[in-house]
């Protein structure tokens, strides 16, 4: 077997289970606030999310709506009715002793998401997406999970709504998973159901096996994938982490097979600081969880929600439309659609002023300066509309492009001032015609030598005079216009 395996070309087969925290005001089965980032531990809790006897769950409509919107974006089947089950296990982060989740009737089934890696398009099948509650969080004091002196538990997170998205084993490289996760986040952000900035808002379990490469040509035999020994890597929290953890596993599994060893079917832990995966435990089987239907939550009829709820134009479609409608390059269209907020802002500005001006100002100037500061649009915290006034000042020719870019934009980003405040404080308003004319006359009167040189045919002398006028007007006059006025005056 070893010589056979060693000479065979191996290829990676990967499937993801992605947990996404849905943005709702309250938890999925109680009224506790989900906004617990700065809260004292265990202050956002109630009898329901602590699992006290007799407390009953009430399903949060907002979480269901978010899942239905996601299902539509993934072209998934949304069944007539969906149910909740108890997944039983003991762990200190789970006060009830079970997690409420969905089992045989998840809210989304059989969808897909298209991703692009370099120039290849790949369609990734979505097996299912289901709603569930997040457990609490554990903090190990004085060491890691196995070496800590003691562990603290915080139930503020217990009951936060999650959607778990399970893909088909359709990925063929770690790069494809990275592209998929980026795309998924983009779609979730467009749907307004997700906040990428929130800690732990995306958590990934990555399943990977290595199979003979020629088996993956054409239609893949399902039983081959079923039988392949795979590892499930847990504790991944970013696109980059997924790519790195999987690249590590590809090498580790390939080495094992080439040395004639079998890859263990097991759960592994991604240790981000060391950049390696480590064995955790053998995988639990489904029967270990003793799933049974939650009697305190009646089945939910969702078919009419699907009709009722609308979703916005999604990133790919919007990108395509921006290219056609505004004649943007692929790169500009891609930058301008990276978040819905930026895309909406660009369209607003493009409609009011001019698409080219809008593209330059949003894609190059604003996003460029943000990028330089390592900031995201979200860091502007609702101040995006202030930048519209800046574009207006440029469009109406009230300040020069150069001042707008170098003084006003930077002042807005670094000092948080409004454009008008900066224009006022720095006296950037373009000088009016009369003032320019006065400066032209003064420059001529004050520089008889230069005037004489010009009159004797020295063309360079005019540039000197232009420079003088620019100085007098604090750089706010238009040099071409000044040149013309000087010539007229000297005729
Ligand atoms: P489990 O019940 O063990 O979690 P599932 O059948 O639910 O298993 O699949 C979990 C994930 O494993 C899915 O994302 C699926 O695509 C992926 N998967 C299935 N077969 C393979 C394989 N041969 N290699 C890698 N991933 C796989
Ligand atoms: Mg699983
Ligand atoms: Zn609660």
UniProtKB/TrEMBL annotation:
Known catalytic reactions: L-glutamyl-tRNA(Gln) + L-glutamine + ATP + H2O = L-glutaminyl-tRNA(Gln) + L-glutamate + ADP + phosphate + H(+); L-aspartyl-tRNA(Asn) + L-glutamine + ATP + H2O = L-asparaginyl-tRNA(Asn) + L-glutamate + ADP + phosphate + 2 H(+)
GO biological process entries: glutaminyl-tRNAGln biosynthesis via transamidation; translation
Entry annotated with the keyword Protein biosynthesis: yes
Domain of life: Archaea
Domain Asn/Gln amidotransferase residue range list: 344-490
Stated role: Allows the formation of correctly charged Asn-tRNA(Asn) or Gln-tRNA(Gln) through the transamidation of misacylated Asp-tRNA(Asn) or Glu-tRNA(Gln) in organisms which lack either or both of asparaginyl-tRNA or glutaminyl-tRNA synthetases. The reaction takes place in the presence of glutamine and ATP through an activated phospho-Asp-tRNA(Asn) or phospho-Glu-tRNA(Gln).
Species, as recorded: Halarchaeum nitratireducens
Cited Pfam families: GatB_N, GatB_Yqey
Protein name, as recorded: Aspartyl/glutamyl-tRNA(Asn/Gln) amidotransferase subunit B
Family statement drawn from the similarity comment of this UniProt entry: Belongs to the GatB/GatE family. GatB subfamily.
PANTHER family in alphabetical order: GLUTAMYL-TRNA GLN AMIDOTRANSFERASE SUBUNIT B MITOCHONDRIAL AND PROKARYOTIC PET112-RELATED, GLUTAMYL-TRNA(GLN) AMIDOTRANSFERASE SUBUNIT B, MITOCHONDRIAL
Subunit text: Heterotrimer of A, B and C subunits.
Keywords: ATP-binding, Ligase, Nucleotide-binding, Protein biosynthesis
InterPro entries: Asn/Gln-tRNA_amidoTrfase_suB/E, Asn/Gln-tRNA_Trfase_suB/E_cat, Asn/Gln_amidotransferase, Asn/Gln_tRNA_amidoTrase-B-like, GatB, GatB_C_1, GatB_Yqey_C_2, Gln-tRNA_amidoTrfase_suB_CS
EC number assigned by the record: 6.3.5.-
Designated gene of the protein: gatB
SMART domains in the cross-refs: GatB_Yqey
Molecular functions (GO terms): ATP binding; glutaminyl-tRNA synthase (glutamine-hydrolyzing) activity; transferase activity
